[in-house]
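> example.struct
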């Protein structure tokens, strides 16, 4: 990329800091090229999101068929869906067509793909072993996935909030979202905001020290959090993202799923989702809460020294 293109590419990302390695070197550059091609057309980011939902969900029945050609087609659908999942956000930022509805749809897309996939993996295991008991781990995998995606999105958006006011515009608390919800007329938009408010209330419920840190900083500094605090938080948050939080994103989940369907041991994926990723989730929350406690204590010590 020439310098001008790279600047435009960076502008199409939420933040280079929150991108993991595979996204940064494959999915995001490919997404950027497609977004550039679509930027002068009438195709909207939300239309891309809806297309990605259908393509990603198609992987489910393809994995169910248990033949190599269909398995490879399912893997291709999953990769293409994730590319389009990058395209919608990058297109929205390039064309300045960002919206709360678009963000909510974008967040739901991956959940829908994997929900369909879990159902068809359970059906495949039922056919192989002659029991419907595999729907139990499928349900637990789906619920685990929702919780992991919820917290991962929250921490990445929080990181952006500490980058700058502009980057952190998407970071909203429950009160703000609930206020918007109450002012809306009945319809699909209001229904989406209801689920978004529930989504946000859960994020706040499981991160009490984080909520305490935000209240502390807002009470003392308002919206002008000192840069040294922003840098300190981002440094610790970035390290945590690279070591733990990125493991709960699409790339690691898709890698294990691909191995599982190619080898035929699809039950391995359910174990990975329910045991390994949930342990990573709990550890991520614990370590993130420790970071927030340290930020509060350090700022209190600074105030007393002054």
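> example.seq
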């Amino acid at each position: 990329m020439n310098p001008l293109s790279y600047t435009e590419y960076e502008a199409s990302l939420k933040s280079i800091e929150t991108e993991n390695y595979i996204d940064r070197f494959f999915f995001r550059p490919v997404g950027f090229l497609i977004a550039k091609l679509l930027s002068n057309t009438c195709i909207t980011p939300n239309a891309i999101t809806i297309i990605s939902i259908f393509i990603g969900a198609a992987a489910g029945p393809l994995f169910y068929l248990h033949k190599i050609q269909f398995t490879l087609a399912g893997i291709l659908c999953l990769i293409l869906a994730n590319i389009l999942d990058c395209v919608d956000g990058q297109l929205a930022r390039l064309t300045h067509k960002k919206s709360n509805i678009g963000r909510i749809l974008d967040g739901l897309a991956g959940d829908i793909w994997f929900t369909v996939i879990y159902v068809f993996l359970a059906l495949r295991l039922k056919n192989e072993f002659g029991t419907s008991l595999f729907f139990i781990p499928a349900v637990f995998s789906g619920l685990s996935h929702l919780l992991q995606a919820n917290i991962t999105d929250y921490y990445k958006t929080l990181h952006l909030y500490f980058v700058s006011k502009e980057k952190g515009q998407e970071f909203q608390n429950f009160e703000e979202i609930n206020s918007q919800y109450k002012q809306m007329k009945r319809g699909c938009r209001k229904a989406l905001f209801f689920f978004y408010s529930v989504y946000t209330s859960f994020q706040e419920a499981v991160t009490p020290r984080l909520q305490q840190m935000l209240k502390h900083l807002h009470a003392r500094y308002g919206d002008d959090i000192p840069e040294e605090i922003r840098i300190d938080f981002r440094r610790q948050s970035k390290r945590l993202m690279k070591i733990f939080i990125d493991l709960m994103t699409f790339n690691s989940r898709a890698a294990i799923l691909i191995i599982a369907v190619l080898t035929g041991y699809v039950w391995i994926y359910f174990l990975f989702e329910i045991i390994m990723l949930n342990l990573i989730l709990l550890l991520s929350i614990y370590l993130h809460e420790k970071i927030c406690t340290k930020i509060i204590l350090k700022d209190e010590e600074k105030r007393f020294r002054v």
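> remarks
The chain has one domain: 3-305.
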